[in-house]
Each structure stands twice: as C-alpha cells, then as structure tokens.
Amino acid sequence: MDIIVLKPDAKESHLKHIIKKLEGWGLKANVSKGTERTIIGVIGDTSKITEEEEDSVRAMEGVENVMRILRPYKLASREFKKTDTHINVRGTRIGGKKICVIAGPCAVENKRTLMSIAEKVKKAGASFIRGGAFKPRTSPYSFQGLGEEGLKYLAEARERTGLPVVTELMDPRDLEVVQKYADIIQVGARNMQNFRLLLEIGLSDKPVILKRGLSATIKEWLMAAEYIMSRGNHKVILCERGIRTFETATRNTLDLSAVPVLKQLTHLPVIVDPSHGVGKWNLVSPMAKAAVAAGADGLLIEVHTKPEEALSDGEQSLKPDAFEQLMSELQPIAKAVGREI
Ligand code: PEP
Ligand code: MN
Predict the structure, then answer these.
(1) How far is ligand 2, taken at its centre, from the CA of residue 263, in Å?
(2) Are 260 and 56 within 8 A, CB to CB?
(3) Which top CATH class is 3-67?
(4) How many other CB atoms are there within 10 angstroms of residue 283's CB atom?
(5) Whose CA is closest to 129, among 141, 138, 120, 137?
(6) pLDDT tens for residues 146-191?
(7) CB 106 within 8 A of CB 132
(8) Closest CA to 229 of 75, 4, 2
(9) Partner of 287 for a Cys bridge, out of 121, 272, 274, 323, CB 3.0 to 4.6 A?
(10) Residue ranges of the domains in the chain?
(11) Can you tell me which atom of ligand 1 is nearest the CA of 242?
(12) Which CATH superfamily does the domain covering 87-336 fall into?
C-alpha cells in the first residue's frame, strides 16, 4: 500500500483516523490536498503491511481506493493514473488531441518587441506566449532579465492577444510575484533538481512546465515531478529540451525517444522544446516536426522579430515568417498521427 485516495467528500476526521492508523504501524502520511481530491502518500516500509491490514484501510470511512505502486515515482506514474492528464489553462487544454504551441522570445527585452512578437505568434496560431523575466544565464555579466517589469509586459501581451503566459521561476522568493502574472510557471533545466523550489511550487495552484535537467535521466526527471505533485500540485507538464552528450554539432542532443518512453511511464502531458534542443534556428523546424510525429502534446519554440539583436538565444530563435511556415507544415504531420494543431 503506497497511495490512499480519499473520496471527494471525505472529512477531516476521516483523514485523521487514517493517519493515526498508519502511525500505529510506524508509517508516516504525506497528505497531498489537490483541487479535486486528497491523496495520502504512505512513507516508510510499506512492504510489511499485510493484505488484511491493507483491506482494513480500504474499509475505512472516507477511503476511495488503496494502491500499491512499484515505481519510485508514484503520483506521476501510469500505474497511479491510467488516463492521460489534461491541463486546462484559461480555456486552452494541454494534453488533449490538439497540440499546444508555446512561442515567444527567450527573454522579455522591452515592451515593444514583446508586443510585436506576441501579435505575430498569435496570428501564426500559437496558443501561449512565453518569455523569461528571470533568466538563468551562464555568465553573471549577461542580461539577467527585467524581473517584475518583464512580467508586467507579459501580462499586457496577454491582454492584447488573449494568449496565456508562460514564464520561468528560478527562486522560491519570487514565487509570489511570478504567479501574480503567469498562467504557467516554467522550471528551467538548471533547476530541475532544486528541491526547495519544487516543493514551493507544489503548494501553488498554477500549472508547471518542468524542463528536463541538462544531464537528468528520465527517472530523475519523474522524481522531480513527484516532488511537485507530492505537495498537492498535480498540474505538471514535462518538457524535453535536450541533454548533454559528447556531440557538439548541436547545442544539446534532443532526446525524442523520451516522448514515447514518458507516454508509457506517466500520465502527465509531454512537450518538446526543439529550440534549446538544437541551438540553431535552421534545425528547429525539422525537430519540431519530428517531436509531433513522436507523440508530443505540445511544442515550446523561441521566436524573435530580430534574432540578430536578441539579448539571449538569438541564434536559435525563429523569425515570425519561419514560425508561421512551420505552423502550417506541422498540420499534415499532426493529422497523420491523429492529432490537430
Ligand atoms: C528557456 O526556456 O529560455 C531556458 C532557459 O530553457 P532551459 O532551462 O531549458 O535551458
Ligand atoms: Mn532561451
């Protein structure tokens, strides 16, 4: 017994009784109160619990189901939830038949450029605007982002285009300000195992895009998702963005096999970021198409009106025309794999 799912109408007193019972067996309870229901993760050596003891928990008031899950990640696993998770963001669904496209600059640089990019990606059919206001830069001397000013511009772009906003959170101290403006919080590759950050986001009700760490295995990545989910936030979207290998022809090696692997292991939506995966604008479109063919639920693509003047990642950013062309070329590929875009 690893997970106890409570009935939607379970009472606080039912929860208390269950926790007491677990504690009597020397186990602890990790209570995850989601928007729909409460789930208890059982912590400790659960292999000692007999079938009779498990049945006695199943019979308790407020209990809907008791499950044994073999994988180390539990809430994220397919064993825990068989059906694909769909996440609704301001009326747009991530994880359904329709492939969602998140597009925009690497960083929010100024209001005018952002508005112009937002209008162009909207026209081309994107369903989210992205842009970093807090940037994880390799050099402390590089542009670090506009902070709250950038978040305000993103909110203005949303007002103007209707596109919900995706933006990165790097530090738990900025959670409050970021969630004031963002519709989806992005956890960048460099922070995939920043466990304190993951735990804080786990208490937020905002959907989260969890990018794969630069050298993270799929198991480590799913364990990071579990950190967020174990705190009650089950709205996690996994984003493959390339991993470090010996290959230098591309910025990273985009691991597209992660898409079908994840589809087997987890119910969470999976999106692909070919921009950071390859690092060169003219390789982005072929890999975006391959991602859709591989079964990705969405794409994250960097777009800039003047990539040559961009303050970060200009070399991998598509110009609006190339983005528009990609969007139309994706249509038959999506259709061929039973999706739409
Ligand atoms: C980004 O999305 O701009 C970014 C910094 O991505 P990653 O964390 O994948 O490098
Ligand atoms: Mn970038």
Answers:
(1) 26
(2) no
(3) alpha beta
(4) 18
(5) 120
(6) 999 999 999 999 999 999 999 999 999 999 999 999 999 999 999 9
(7) yes
(8) 75
(9) 274
(10) 3-67, 87-336
(11) 9
(12) Aldolase class I (3.20.20.70)
